[in-house]
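Model it.
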Amino acid sequence: MNYLVTGGSGFIGSHLVEQLLKKGHSVINIDNFDDFYNYQIKIKNTLASIDKNSAFEFRDKETDIKNLVSISKSENYTLYYQDIRDKKGLEDIFKNHQIDLIIHLAALAGVRPSIERPLEYEEVNVRGTMNLWELCNDFTIKKFVCASSSSVYGNNEKVPFAETDNVDNPISPYAATKKCGEILGHVYHQLYNLDMIQLRFFTVYGPRQRPDLAIHKFTRLISENQEIPFYGDGTTARDYTYVDDIIDGITKSIHYLENNSDIYEIINLGESQVIDLNEMVSTIEKALGKSAIRKNLPMQPGDVQKTNADITKAKTLIGYKPDTNFQNGIKKFVEWFLRK
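Modeled.
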C-alpha cells in the first residue's frame, strides 16, 4: 500500500513511518521542519525511521534538509519538505504519487503556545487540514486517518472521558482547532464519502518525544541537577500513553478503514491509567536514580486538571490493546534518553 504521512519526521510520525516501512509499505512523508523546536531533532527522527543512523554532518537548515531529502529517497520512501498551508505545493505531490490512504499527524501542537499564537494555529490545524481534504476530493482518495487530541475534552467533569461526551467547551485555541477538525472532517465525510477516523491521542510519550514536553523536559532537568517547573500542587493528572501503543492504535485504524466503508469514527487512544504530577516526577526520579529540585509555580492558563480515556470503543471497534504501563514506559524512555 502507498501511504502519505504528514508530520512523518515528528515524534509520533517517525515511529509510524518506521513501522509502515518494516511492514513493506511505501511511504510519502510530508513535513515542514517547523522551528517550533530544533529542526535537527526531526532530521535525527527521520534517519532513525528509515534505518539510516549513520553520522549526519549538520551545516545550516536549508542545506541539511536538502541533503536529508536526497539521502533518504528510496524505492519505497520519499520525503517532501512541504508546508500543509501551501495547497499548490501539496497538489504537486499528489500529482506525482498514487496514494491509497492518508495519515494526517502534522499540526502546530501545544496548549500554552496556542494561547500566544492562536491565528497561526488556525492556519495550520484548520486550513492546512482542509487543504488535504480538498485534495482528497480532487484526487479521489477515500481513506483518511486524522490526529485529534484529548485536549478537546477540556475540564470534563465526567471520567473516564468517552467519545460520546460533550466537547463544546475547549479551554485553549489548540483544543478548539482540534474540535474544528473533527467537525469539518464529518462534513467532508458526508459530502464526499471520505472514510475517516479521528484519533484522540492522550498525552503520548516515549523515545523521540519532543524536548519541550513534560516527561522529556523533566528527565533532562533532573539529570542535569536543574530545577523543574512544578505547576500547581501536584494533583493534576494525565492518561499517559506510550508511543508504541499509539502506533498500534493508528495501524489498527488503518486496517479498519481499508476493510470497511462509509466510516466516520472518533476514537480515544489512551492507556487508561491516570498518573498525577507527583507520581510522574517520582517515577522519573526512580528511573534516573536522582532527586528532582522542584520550583513550585501556579497552574498555567489552558491546562486541564485531569485526563482519563475510556478506551472501550477502541478495544471493541479496532482491537486496540495498550500493554505498556507507566513505570515500564518511563524506564524505556529514560534508557533511550541516556544513550541518545
